[in-house]
Amino acid sequence: MTAPTRGRPALEVAEVIRQYGEAFLGRYASGLSAAQRQALRDLANCRTAALGGHVERCLDCGHERLAYNSCRNRHCPKCQALARAHWLDRQAEQLLPVEYHHVVFTLPAELGAVALAHPAVVYDLLLRSAAAALREVAANPKRLGAAPGVLLVLHTWGQNLHHHPHVHGVVTGGGLSCDAAGKVDAAPRWVACRPGFLLPGRVLGRVFRGKFLAGLRAAIGAGALAAPPGSTAWWSALYAQEWVVYSKRPFGGPAQVLKYLARYTHRVAISNARLVELGAGRVTFRCKDYADGGRDKALTLEAVEFLRRFVQHVLPKGFVKIRHYGLLANAQREARLRLCRRLLLVAAVAAGLPGREAATIEPAQPRCCARCGGRRLVYGELDPVAPGSGRPAPDSS
pTM to 2 decimals? Predict the structure, then answer.
């Protein structure tokens, strides 16, 4: 059993790697990518002497605090808070005072093996196809006749850590008027969707299916991935089924959107807070069982199997999992958002706009001494050292 560490979760994914990483590599090393190997090394070394660190000393009372460096790997449960805070700061400036919708696109299970074998190709196609489906259906004058703002986030896991690639989308409840091809009008107006309803899920699912499978055929034709065995029946099964696209209840405004983004955008496959127990070669963690009404349950896996499931969700190096499309696309984002605000009369609304204050992110408070509260702190660097050097554990106070 792993003993709790003061100020930290009782158990961390890093500890599972440190204790059972060699056994895992002995069984699965040949199938790991460079990014997966790097993630295992980084997480095991995160906030340990192996990465170096610093000593913080208070000039007022002399209290010293030892802290080791973070690995900054985007798959590390301990390293996402700062990246998320900086990213949310930027997103807060881009939010409009409109209803936002949460749309989820899911790949059929038949594509799981292809996605694991060619993650960069399939995940990129998943994101691009979801965005294209949203833009095409929204541009249809019978649906909305507008170009919305779209933010997409890739997730590859389910609660039990099985492979479950899907995309969460945050979409503005309306957009700039456009033609059927999605090109914004020369003199656009703001077109709002019906309250509580954005676009029909079944229509989105069929357009999404068509675009993804067309892209997959093109990728196979270009040699980016191999055709799956039993291709005729495989393709038929994919075309025959309805692809799952559904909208959750819309957000009320910018404050709710930021709260959602804070939870979803920088999430990793499993947080340390969900881990319950490590011992006798097994890991127990909490998960929601959606087949049983979303009840919280405890799931126990062999530690090696836990790590096998975890590394499935390590993305290829450099892969961008958060993307912006439509009004939020990088090329003309600032100009189009200014236009949207003008059309929505935001500039004429008083400073007390509902939800505006709630959407503001408070800046981080200056660090102070844990003992006396003083802010006259000085720092000394600690060089990286090999594991087992005997350097004390960091003080989390």
Answer: 0.86
